[in-house]
Write a structure and sequence with these properties.
The structure holds two protein chains of two kinds. By secondary structure, chain A is an alpha+beta fold. Chain A has helices at 7-15, 20-31, 36-49, 62-76, 82-96, 251-254, 269-280, 305-315, and strands spanning 101-103, 121-125, 132-135, 141-144, 149-153, 161-171, 180-183, 187-191, 195-200, 206-213, 216-220, 226-229, 233-238, 243-248, 261-268, 282-286, 295-301, 318-323, 336-342. Chain B folds into two domains: 4-92, Rna Polymerase Sigma Factor, Chain: A (Orthogonal Bundle), CATH 1.10.1740.10; 110-195, Arc Repressor Mutant, subunit A (Orthogonal Bundle), CATH 1.10.10.10. Chain B has helices at residues 9-17, 21-43, 46-62, 73-109, 113-116, 119-132, 135-145, 151-158, 162-195. Chain B is elongated, with a radius of gyration of 25 Å. The chains are: A alpha+beta, B mainly alpha.
Chain lengths: 346, 196
């Protein structure tokens, strides 16, 4: 309900000699948008005439300025610390075998001064052998595959940038005012309202972007390339050759992991071991290379590693041995080792 | 190049538009005190007023490309400040809502309270009285009034019966009423003797 804004009431409020009724009036002027225009012009007049009284003590605002300055400078600087960060992170993760973690700052990992960490990042890690489902501040749903990591700006609602290490599936909320960008070392994936997954792991030679629905634009570092992906297409980028190729794929199948399915469709066992290794964080040692070519097909749904291996051994000509985890000389846990051998035909 | 001291505000704005952090600092020095005290008269908090100064100047920097040098910078600054002050003020009202509600309840028994006395002093007294409650009563009272928890929630959290919770709240409300009723009398006296 529109009311008249009375400057007398405002004066009384500011002087401290106001009644509850005065406060209620002022509160409704600030609250109801119908009154904002009047309130603003009243206050504007007041601001133009405002002068510091001799009784107003000078407030030391130097710390405020420092905050403003650091925000300005952090916006200028490219976020280049991530390489160092990931390197340190991986090392630490191996030592502690930390399950799900969410940090709002990464002071723990860096000795560098705090200014470098502005603005603040939120970090989410999915533990090995499990997936993590989370919602970003803008409503986008992310499924992080086991052993993967996602980092996004705390101010994500206004600046939709994030980084991933590993594999993540995104169900993005459309917001044309704020582009959604996934940053990897070699290219940026820009999307508008869509479903896609990105695989970007340090220890692999390729970066894969698989699009289930919608459209994404892929831009190479230093604009080395620009591609547009549509539904059921994948872009496989070779990190060594620095080139990529678009392929038609069954996107649903390739992203089935997000619902807990481990699906192998006539895949060579070598590839199967690679995926299992990443999923369960184990190292496969294949003693007999002939094993690698065997084409395997199966679907697993949230099974433990031992069960998966047992089932594979039923139909594939392999025998396996799971070695217990060891602590090495630097007091770090080594990942589990599974030795695969060709099954002896008796 | 002229020293920054002698630059007019228009020139400072032009410099700022071209990303001069020096010009930005100069403008900060020129307006931050005023902005701080102006905000403080509305928000009544040093801390919040500092936040206003921070928010406003960060916004100014972020939008420096759109600055118009022929328009008043002082006025432009106000427009940004108004929105920030409004947001903070509304938030403060939301947070203090429970005190206002308590006060409305007190007014029902002595309606004069609403218009005659200085509200800030009354709220201060209200805060003080609640603080003086016996510890258990204080916890129950604040959980109900400030945090908005239900009687059964509180009963469960504290391991006591809902009836006890209810009784404590009623006792709290009554003691507040009593204290304010007494205060009323002395305040009326004060006004008669010293003000009128």
């Amino acid at each position: 309900m529109k009311e008249k804004v009375d400057s007398g009431v405002i004066k009384k409020y500011k002087s401290g000699r106001y009644s509850f009724r005065d406060l209620k009036k002022l509160a409704s002027w600030f609250q109801d948008s119908e009154n904002h225009e009047n309130l603003q012009s009243n206050m504007r007049e007041e601001w133009e005439e405002f002068n510091l009284q001799p009784t107003d003590l000078q407030k030391d605002l130097s710390s405020v300025y420092l905050n403003v300055e650091s925000k300005i400078n952090s916006d200028k600087k490219a976020v280049n610390f991530k390489d160092r960060f990931f390197h340190v992170y991986l090392r630490v993760a191996a030592v502690l075998l930390i399950p799900l973690l969410i940090y709002s700052s990464i002071v723990t990992f860096q000795q560098k001064s705090v200014e470098e960490l502005e603005p603040s990042w939120v970090e989410v890690n999915a533990p090995y052998g499990a997936r993590t489902l989370l919602n970003l501040p803008d409503g986008t749903e992310v499924t992080l595959n086991s052993g993967s990591q996602l980092k996004y700006l705390a101010d994500f609602k206004h600046d939709r940038k994030l980084e991933i290490e590993g594999e993540a599936y995104f169900d993005v909320v459309h917001d044309s005012a704020s582009p959604f960008v996934v940053h990897t070392d070699f290219m940026d994936v820009k999307v508008l309202g869509t479903k896609f997954s990105v695989v970007s792991a340090e220890d692999e030679n390729t970066i894969d972007v698989i699009l289930e629905e919608g459209k994404v634009q892929l831009t190479g570092a230093q604009n080395s390339f620009s591609e547009v992906l549509t539904k059921d297409e994948s872009f496989v980028f070779d990190k060594v050759a620095r080139t990529g190729k678009i392929r038609k794929v069954d996107a649903r199948y390739l992203t089935s992991w997000k619902d807990g399915y481990l699906v192998f469709r006539k895949e060579p066992l070598g590839k199967v071991m690679q995926r299992l290794g990443r999923w369960y964080n184990v190292q496969f040692q294949i003693e007999d290379p002939e094993v690698e070519d065997f084409k395997y097909r199966a679907t697993f749904h949230d099974e433990p590693l031992e069960e998966v291996l047992r089932l594979i051994a039923l139909t594939a000509p392999i025998s396996y041995e799971i070695k217990e985890r060891k602590i090495n000389t630097s007091d770090e846990y080594e990942p589990k080792i599974v030795i695969i051998k060709l099954e002896k035909q008796d | 190049m002229k020293r920054l001291e002698s630059l007019s505000e228009e020139e400072l704005v032009i410099s700022l538009r071209s990303n001069s952090q020096d010009a930005f600092k100069k403008l900060f020095d020129r307006y931050s005190q005023k902005l701080f005290h102006f905000s403080r008269s509305y928000l009544k908090s040093d801390f919040e007023s500092e936040e206003i100064v921070q928010e406003v100047f960060i916004k100014i920097w972020e939008n420096r490309g759109n600055l118009k040098s022929d328009k008043s910078f002082k006025s432009y600054l106000f427009t940004i400040a108004f929105n920030a002050i409004k947001k903070h003020f509304n938030k403060k009202m939301r947070e203090e809502k429970y005190k206002h509600e308590l006060f409305e309840w007190l007014i029902r028994s002595s309606p004069d309270l609403e218009t005659r006395t200085e509200f800030e002093k009354l709220i201060e007294k209200l805060d003080h009285l609640i603080d003086q409650f016996p510890p258990k009563r204080k916890i129950i009272f604040l959980r109900r009034k400030k945090e908005g928890k239900s009687i059964s929630e509180i009963a469960q959290e504290m391991g006591i019966s809902p009836k006890t919770v209810k009784n404590q709240i009623t006792a709290g409300m009554n003691s507040l009423k009593k204290s304010f009723a007494e205060e009323d009398f002395s305040t009326i006296l004060f006004y008669f003797l010293f003000i009128s």
